Amino acid sequence: MKNIKLISRDHIKEKLNISDTMNIMEKIYRAHAGDQVLMPSKITLDLGESNEWPPYGGSYNAMPAYLGNDFDMSGIKWVWGFNDNPKKGLPYISAVIILNDPRTGEVLAIMDGSYITDVRTGASAGVAVKYLKSKNARSVGIIGAGVVGRMNLRAISTVMDIEEVKVYDLYSSASEKYAKELSEELNLNITPVNSCMDACIGSDVMVTATIANEPLIMKEWLKKGATVLSLGSFQELDENIPLTADKLVVDNWSQNSHRGELLKLVQRGLISEKNIHAEIPDIIVGNKNGRENDDEIICACIIGMGSTDIGVASHLYSAHFKNCSTETFSLR
């Protein structure tokens, strides 16, 4: 067996930026639209809540994929989230990615997957906004001032002329820190606000990136022409938003049908594939229309796909680590 590259978070952070990741994401979406991706649905291992068995308050997802076209790579992301990790000084979500030679199955690299997850999640929001925002969109509301909320704004700022950002977090200190640091980094006018409603009212683009499992945005708060992105693993929107939006868009229907924003509606028989206007890959290649007028309310549910993790990891491996002189890097 060949020497396996062990690629750390620090090495990935040196090589991966939001603009490059958005370009990679569009290539991955185009591969999906061209039937160049094999990707079974996520497999979830649920370790229950505090009143269940086993009572660990966390879960794992196994996310395998193969990408053809320029990638020609197979692999899997093993990602986990545990509710009490922040109290223990650990991130809520962590991950590892394994890349395999698709011809032999040999392991090529084992990579930190946490930073790739954060960046590709933000990039997915940026790509969605690029294709779905109204032409005069200038204001953004962010709910969730964590790492992913930061990546979202970094990505959106590359595709939109932003005049105002409002950010809300359950912890006011987090939204204040977010506003201070990203105002300086991105040269934007960012205001921490006191409620989800304050973040939403008047915003052209709304993004939720939390661990909530309850409605954070109500339909009556949305202005005409709003673009609403739900990126969490559970429900974050008033159900009337996906049920009555002019267009309901997903990154991948199979993934969204069993996890995330739409799961409860699917289980109740209120939403099925026929209610989905388009998957984002089909909009990018022009098989389906994105926004068609500035009054449409468009809801996009982006649950995340293993193909995007493997695609970004494959790009990093091929461009920066495949032929490096150092055979292995520490995962730490």
Provide an overview of this structure:
- This protein is an alpha/beta fold.
- The protein has 2 domains: 5-116 and 307-321, ornithine cyclodeaminase, domain 1 (2-Layer Sandwich); 128-305, NAD(P)-binding Rossmann-like Domain (Rossmann fold), CATH 3.40.50.720.
- The chain has helices spanning 9-15, 18-33, 114-132, 147-156, 172-186, 196-200, 240-244, 253-256, 263-267, 280-284, 306-321; strands spanning 5-7, 37-38, 43-46, 58-67, 73-82, 93-100, 107-112, 139-143, 164-168, 190-192, 205-208, 227-230, 247-250, 278-279, 298-301.
- The strands form 2 sheets. Strands 10-9-8-11-12-15-13-14 form an 8-stranded parallel β-sheet. Strands 1, 2, 3, 4, 5, 6 and 7 form a 7-stranded mixed β-sheet that branches.
- Helix 4 links the parallel strand 8 and strand 9 (164-168).
- 47% of the residues are buried.
- The mean pLDDT is 94.
What is the global morphology? globular
CATH topology of the largest domain: Rossmann fold
Mean pLDDT: 94
Which strand order spans the largest sheet, edge to edge or round the barrel?
Answer: 10-9-8-11-12-15-13-14
- Model regions low in confidence, pLDDT < 50 over at least 5 residues: none
Q: Summarize the amount of helix as a percent range.
A: 25-40%
The CATH class of the largest domain is Alpha Beta
Tally of helical segments: 11
Structural domain count: 2
